[in-house]
Amino acid sequence: MKTPYKLISSLALALLSLTSCEKDVMTQLPVERTEINDIFNPKDKEGTYIDEYVSSIYTQLPRGFNRIDQNYLDGGTDDAVTANVSTVPVDKFKTGQWGPSDLPENPWASNYAAIRRVNILLANIGNSGISEARKNSYRAQARFLRAMFYFEMLKRWGGIPLIGDKVFTLDDDVALKRNTLDESVAYILGECNALISDNILPATLTDAEIGRACKGAVLALKSRLLLYNASPLYNPAGDVARWQAAATAANDLIQTNLYSLEANFGTMFTTRKNKEFIFAYQQGDNATIENLNEPPGFQRTGQGVTNPTQDLVDAFPMKNGKLINEAGSGYIATNPYVNRDNRFALTIFHNGFSWLSTPLELFVGGKNNLKPGRASGTKTGYYLRKFMAVSGTAAAYANATHNFPIFRYAETLLNYAEAQNEALATPDASVYTAINTVRTRAGITPVIANGSLTKTQMRDLIRNERRVELAFEEHRFWDIRRWKIAETVLNGQLKGMQITKSGTTLTYQVVPVQTVFFDAARMYWYPISFTDISKNPNLKQNQGW
Questions:
Q1: How, if at all, do strands 306-308 and 80-82 pair?
Q2: Is the pTM of this model over 0.90?
Q3: How does pLDDT run across 72-128, given as a tens digit for each residue?
């Protein structure tokens, strides 16, 4: 095991404590007064401490899955509810019960702590004894990570304080003002462009480097940043040039020809390396996802905490590409789960789904749909299947690879399709190609014919494809905000499916499962917490909070 260390940040916005599983070998004094010379030591030609230091920055990346009190961020959208009887933190995002004193998640301080780590590295790595090539690689990785942390803040709060390369000391004034949204976007974009121009990060990674920053990750961050920046929330004037820039950024990544879609939508989420993942949060093999999300009723300890909504289920098209309410779709209300696109059964457990060689019983009174009021039962008639490994025995799970996809190629294709469609009066052939590529992998035939859709129809199709293709990958939460449709989809009732069984006959009835509320006047951006505002009175609160 590598030697651990502890760092304590002096930045008031980001008090940080970094520990490991062995004894601490560094003091709890400000890092700039103690450990810097040990970590960035000119006599250390191996750079062991530096490698650990950089690794510690990577651990601050978005880790996805059940990260918010054992619930998905998507549980704060119209795609899922939690099986818990009482309200869980993520529920508050869609019930209006959140604000400056009660944020279901608040990575403000942790992101500034991570940014501080980056700036310490940039200020001191020149003193180390490692090679110049290795120094430059660490610098580039750190700058990419810093851009990621800023983006994570930008999509929550809008404009944030930008500190550049500054490393604050105990004597510095850290009561910084917020930069504007445009300034914040420009800074992150500038970092991405500089990294692309410097061409230090590798185009491809060795097996030992999986999870590290690469050229594709920078291009993917730039693509997502510009897509957000072109969207209605960021671009109220509807500047078409922003959409054109976003389309170009996505196409730049496509044209590298470094990535492609995996043939199997299901198994790619349980492999550490594949041709579709551009950048993913790395963690040790585990069975956490299975423990939390597998349907109850088996010998194993599945809790079934994540219950997809009927709203999401209805978004999955049929194999012929039509939505269930379209003429000619072939949808059968008395047998609703047949002939759906391949992603449906790889994303959602439904009644009759064969799991551990046993059909799931999600009807009322079924062994996998427990009594109302039980925290382990489903509220919607569904459980989450996506990301789950088919491994272990009927009595026990087996540990499996679960690396959260921060960027994957399917998103890039959808980014391009959306931006290019919005940049043009009518969708061109390249938009159809991108969207058909994603749908074909899902088993949908025939492809959508060039020229068959208007711009508005294509927009609706692309948005729906993002919803089903990227479900539970922390996109829907931000998409409904940047599109400014949260006020529509999160006001009213979310739905589930109640199934009753009489003899061999099943009856399906759509029922309300949760009342949701979204205040368009203030909820598109997070409020800055009272704690952070009290630390820094120069922070201006977001509108309405």
A1: antiparallel
A2: yes
A3: 999 999 999 999 877 799 999 999 999 999 999 999 999 999 999 999 999 999 999
Which of 23-32, 313-322, 388-397, 436-445 comes out lowest in average pLDDT?
A: 23-32
Contacts for 518 with CB less than 8 Å, ≥ 6 apart: 94, 96, 486, 487, 490, 491
Residues 6+ apart with CB under 8 A from 485: none
* Cα 57 versus chain centre, distance: 18
Question: 448-459 burial string, b = 16+ CB within 10 Å, else e?
Answer: beeeebeeeebb
C-alpha distance from residue 366 to each of 52, 292, 345, 371 (Å): 50, 20, 20, 9
Find, among 463, 458, 293, 450, the residue nearest to 385 by Cα.
293
Rounded CA-CA distance 302/436 in Å is 36
Question: Which residues 6+ apart lie within 8 Å of 100 measured at CB?
Answer: 527, 528, 529, 530, 533, 541, 545
Per-residue CA distances from 440 to 276, 336, 417, 435, 507 (Å): 15, 22, 15, 9, 32
What is the torsion angle, in degrees rounded to the nearest 10, for the CA atoms of residue 353, residue 380, residue 499 and residue 507? -100
CA-CA distance, 193 to 417, in Å (whole number)?
22
pLDDT tens for 230-243 read 999 999 999 999 99
Contact between 11 and 98 under an 8 Å Cβ cutoff? The reply is no
pLDDT band at 267 (very low <50, low <70, confident <90, very high): very high
* Cα separation, 507 vs 131, whole angstroms: 69
Closest to 39 (Cα-Cα) out of 63, 85, 67, 4? 4
Q: How far is CA 534 from the centre of its chain?
A: 30
ω before 512 within 30° of 0 (cis)?
no
Confidence at residue 86, expressed as pLDDT on a 0 to 100 scale = 78
Neighbouring C-beta atoms of residue 160, cutoff 10 Å: 24
- List Cβ neighbours of 533 (8 Å cut-off, separation of 6 or more): 100, 539, 541
Whether 417 shows a pLDDT value over 90: the answer reads yes
Tell me how far apart the alpha carbons of residues 150 and 229 are, in angstroms, rounded to a whole number: 14
Residue 477, CA atoms < 13 Å, CB-side half-sphere: 21
Per-residue confidence (pLDDT) for residue 376, from 0 to 100: 62
Number of H helices, E strands in the chain: 17, 10
Is pLDDT above 80 for 403? Answer: yes
- Residue 426: count of CB within 10 angstroms of its CB: 11
**CA-to-CA dists, residue 478 to 16, 77, 155, 225, 382, angstroms:** 27, 9, 8, 12, 23
Token pair belonging to 423: 């940049």
Round to whole Å and give the CA distance between 35 and 448: 60
**248: CB partners within 8 A, 6+ apart:** none
